[in-house]
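In the laboratory, one determines a bound structure by crystallizing the protein with its ligand and collecting diffraction data. In a computational setting the workflow is compressed into a single prediction: the sequence and the ligand go in, and a structural description comes out. We illustrate the idea with X2X.
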Amino acid sequence: MRKFFAFALVAVFLFAFLADAPAFAAGYKAEYKLDIVPNLNTGWGMGATYFTDLIRERSGGKINIKVYPNAQLSAGKQTNAFMLLRNGAIDFACQSTINYSPQIPELNLFALPFFMSGQPDRYKALDAITHGKSGELVAEAIEAKGAKFLCYGENGFRELTNSKKEIRTPADLGGLKLRVVGSQLFLDTFTALGSNPVAMPWSDTMSSLQQGTIDGQENPINTFFPVKVYDFNKYVTNWHYMGDPTMFVVNPTVWSSFSSEDQDLILKAAKDAAAYQIALARVGVDENDGGKNLEYLKSIGKAEGVVSDWNAELKKVGMTVTDLKPEETAQFVELTKKVKASWTDRIGAKLIEQAEADMAAAK
Ligand code: X2X
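The predicted complex, in C-alpha cell form:
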C-alpha cells in the first residue's frame, strides 16, 4: 500500500512538471513584446518577424514573441522607446540607432553625414564599423545604459524624397520643409544644408506629406516604399548620406530569466534574422554586390517578391530618380563638415577615430 502511494505521488509530481514544463522550467512569460517603428512589410519589419518565427520554431513553441509595429509600444514616441525597454515595458526590440541616440550619444556615430558614403564602398564601410572595434565600443555603450545587445541588423542607407523638385545640390534644398527624426543631429545636418527640418514621429509623417504641411522626408527605400511615399513625393535623390543599422536588443532582466541554452538560441536567431534583414536592405540598391544579396535570399528561401532593381521600381511608380555625380555629392559633404566637428565631443573623439580606422582597414 505504502509503495502504491509513493508511486502515485511521484506520478502526480511528474505529470504536473511535464504538463507545465515550459513555464515551470524557467518562469517564462506566455508572450514577449518586441518593438519596431515601421510597419511589418518593410525590410525592418520582415527581419523582426523572422527573428520571432525562428525563436518560436526552434524553441518548440516555448518562447513566443509578438512584433508590435508602428511604434505602438511607445505610443508613437519612437525616441522614448529606449526608456521603455530599459524599464521592462518592452521586452525585445529591433530598433534604429537613431531612435536610441537621445539617450545613448555614441549611437550618433552612424548618423554623421556622409561618414560611410564618403568611403569607396559604403557597405564595406558600414560592415567595417559593425564588425569592428568601433561597433564593439558602441555595443558596450548600449549595454552600459541598460540593454542586452545581441547584434546589428539594417534599416538601410537613407535617401531623400520630396514633392517639389529634383534635388541635385544643396541650393535645391533651399527652404524645403523636410521631416526628420526627433534627434538634434538631424536638425543640425538639415539646417546646415539650408533646408527647413521639422522633427516628427514616423507615424505622423505620411499624413503630413498628404496634407502638404511638409514637403519631404528621408528614409531607406525599403522603408518608405511600402508606405507609398510616392503617392505624395515624386522626387527621390540617392545620396546615401547615412547608413542606418538596427540593433537587436533585450531588456536585461528578461535576458537573465532565460536558460543559457535559450540565450544561445535567441542570439543565433538574432544573427540569422539580421543577415536576412541586411540582405533585404541591400538587394537592388547595392550596385556593387555582384548579386550576392539575392543569392543569399534564395539560399534561405526568401527571395520571392524581392525587388532586384529599386531604381526601376521607383520609376515604375512615377518617381523621378536622381543619382548624384561626385561633384554634386561633394557640395553636400562640404556644407556638413561643421556638423561632424560640432558633434565630435558628444559622440566621443576616440570612437570616431576608431570607426575611421576600421573603415580604412577594410578598403
Ligand atoms: O522614423 C524614421 O525615419 C525611421 C522609421 O526610419 C526610424 O525609426 C529611424
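Confidence is low (pLDDT under 50) at residues 17-25. Keep in mind that any predicted model is a hypothesis to be tested, not a measurement.
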